[in-house]
Each structure stands twice: as structure tokens, then as C-alpha cells.
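Inverse folding, one chain.
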């Protein structure tokens, strides 16, 4: 950030007996990553979000019979700029997360899949939360991003060794009339992309779809439409996961709810932009896969969860959806 870039400062004072309000304000500021110059004095790089946060906390302080001011300012010189930037050094937190990722990889052989995926989902959530308040990214962030990708690769290599590779090229549009009442095939032991794709197929593409779960893709019936494996009709293409490929192929990418579901599936399958619901859905999916006797029952169990997420995403005006790539 350049020397001329403005900052925001919240200067507040609360009566000594208002401990509840003091703790509420402190927690909100800490969660937002505000830097503390001293007790009651906090700074953030000036953004619309920072202005809103400080205005809200100032109002909270005043409502508790305290005093508060929000002040915009710029660093007077490079030395002051360095002092302010140092308040937002996240390298120690990144080191701790890197150590946890490294430890998880070292313990994979001792963990069952449900536990391993739950731990990785929690770490993914913690990393996303830290990145959201990392206003001056540096090498530590890149190191953790690479470590997270390595951990995801190691976990998938252990529990889903036959994940498909992305094809190159654009996604062709398909005529839905040619995909009605079909037999669809994918790998058994469904995980995020496969179960979401099967739900999407039956809900939006082929309401009479029947599924076959393959122990090996070599046994895929000749008349089946394959998805989410190498050589399948619908599988990863470029940066898109299979769910997103299906959206683009059947003209569903403009559906707000489906686009946001696509963002969720993408993040859980290959990483990228974090989604708030990701850790919760991954935990539900891991638990369901551990307790359901077969993939037909698993799909039946997860379908209502995806129905609910779709309904919530379709009607929630915020945030704007990340539209599936066409």
C-alpha cells in the first residue's frame, strides 16, 4: 500500500462498568482484523467495509454512554507507514496453520477418511478467515496456500485416487432432449462433485435418470452417459469441475442458486475462492458417506441438503453469485 493511501482510525472510550459492550466491540474489531495502537484506538486500511465497521462500533460505544470518533488519515512518513503495516503482520498465524497442515499430512495414514476430511475442512475454513483479514499479503500466505493444495492433493490421492484430470477446450452445449431417460454412470463411493452432479442431473437435466456406480470405469456400460472420470462425456474441463461443466453444457449457468452451488462444489473439489458453507457441507457429506450402506442411499440422503442449499442460494440476495464459466 502506498504512503498516500488513507487509513481509518477508531478512537473510543467506554465507562469502566460497561464490560459487556467493551467485550462486544473488541470481538467485532478483532474478527475484522483491526490493528490496535493502544486501548480504545484501532486502525484499518480505509475501505468501504472498514468505514462501515468503525461506524457501527462507534455507534455501539456511544449507545453504551461512551465516546467515539472515526478519523481518516494518511501516514506522515515512511517510518509511520511501516509501524502501521506491522500491526497487520499475519506471518505468525500463517506459520501455525502451516504446521497444522504439515502435521495433518503426516497423520493421514492413521486417520479414517471422515476424520481426515473434517480436519482439512476446518483448516481450510481457518485459512480463508485469515486471508480475509490479511491486508498486506506476503510469502507466508503463499506458503500456506501451497501447503493447503499439497494437503488436498495428498488426501485425495489416499481416499479418491482416481479423480479426473481436466480436459482442455470450451464446453459444448448439449440438447437436453438427447439426455432424457438415460443411464448415467460415475465412480462409486460418491464424494462432493459426483453427488452434486448426480443431484443436478436428476433435478434439472434428466428427471428419469438412472445411475450406475462403477467400481472401475472400465466396466462403464456402453449405453451409459459417464460423468466425473477420465474419458467420461462430462468431466473436469479446464478450471471447471464436473458440476460446472454440466451447468455450462445444459444452459444452467445463469441460475443464481445453481451458480452458487457450483462455487461451493468447486471450492470443496479443487480449492479456490472460499465459501462460508463449505466446511459444514463437507462434514455432512463425510458423515453421510460413512453411515450410508450404498451410493443410492447416499444420494437420497444428500439430495434434501442440496435442495435446501439451492433454495437458500436462489433467494439470498447477498453475496452476488460467482457465475459458472461458460
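Residues assigned per position:
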Amino acid at each position: 500500500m502506498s504512503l498516500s493511501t488513507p487509513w481509518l482510525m477508531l478512537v473510543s472510550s467506554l465507562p469502566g462498568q460497561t464490560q459487556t459492550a467493551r467485550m462486544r466491540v473488541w470481538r467485532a474489531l478483532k474478527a475484522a482484523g483491526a490493528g490496535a495502537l493502544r486501548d480504545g484506538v484501532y486502525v484499518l486500511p480505509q475501505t468501504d467495509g472498514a468505514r462501515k465497521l468503525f461506524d457501527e462500533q462507534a455507534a455501539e460505544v456511544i449507545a453504551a454512554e461512551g465516546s467515539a470518533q472515526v478519523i481518516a488519515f494518511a501516514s506522515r512518513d515512511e517510518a509511520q507507514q511501516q509501524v502501521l503495516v506491522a500491526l497487520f503482520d499475519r506471518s505468525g498465524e500463517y506459520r501455525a496453520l502451516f504446521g497444522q497442515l504439515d502435521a495433518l499430512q503426516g497423520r493421514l495414514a492413521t486417520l479414517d477418511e471422515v476424520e481426515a476430511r473434517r480436519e482439512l475442512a476446518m483448516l481450510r475454513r481457518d485459512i480463508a478467515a485469515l486471508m480475509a483479514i490479511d491486508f498486506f499479503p506476503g510469502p507466508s500466505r503463499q506458503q500456506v496456500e501451497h501447503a493447503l493444495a499439497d494437503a488436498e492433493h495428498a488426501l485425495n490421492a489416499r481416499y479418491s485416487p482416481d479423480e479426473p484430470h481436466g480436459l482442455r477446450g470450451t464446453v459444448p452445449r448439449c440438447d437436453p432432449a438427447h439426455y432424457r431417460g438415460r443411464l448415467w454412470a460415475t465412480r462409486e463411493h460418491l464424494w462432493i462433485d459426483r453427488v452434486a452432479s448426480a443431484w443436478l442431473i436428476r433435478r434439472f437435466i434428466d428427471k428419469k435418470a438412472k445411475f450406475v456406480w462403477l467400481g472401475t470405469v472400465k466396466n462403464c456400460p456402453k449405453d451409459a452417459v459417464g460423468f466425473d472420470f477420465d474419458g467420461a462425456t462430462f468431466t473436469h474441463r479446464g478450471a471447471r469441475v464436473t458440476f460446472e461443466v454440466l451447468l455450462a453444457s445444459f444452459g444452467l449457468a445463469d441460475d443464481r442458486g445453481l451458480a452458487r452451488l457450483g462455487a461451493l462444489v468447486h471450492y470443496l473439489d479443487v480449492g479456490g475462492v472460499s465459501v462460508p458453507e463449505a466446511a459444514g457441507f463437507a462434514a455432512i457429506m463425510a458423515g453421510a458417506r460413512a453411515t450410508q450402506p450404498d451410493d443410492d442411499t447416499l444420494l437420497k440422503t444428500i439430495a434434501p441438503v442440496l435442495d435446501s442449499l439451492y433454495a437458500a442460494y436462489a433467494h439470498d440476495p447477498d453475496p452476488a453469485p460467482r457465475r459458472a464459466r461458460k
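DSSP finds eleven helices and seven strands in the chain. The first helix runs from residue 19 to 31.
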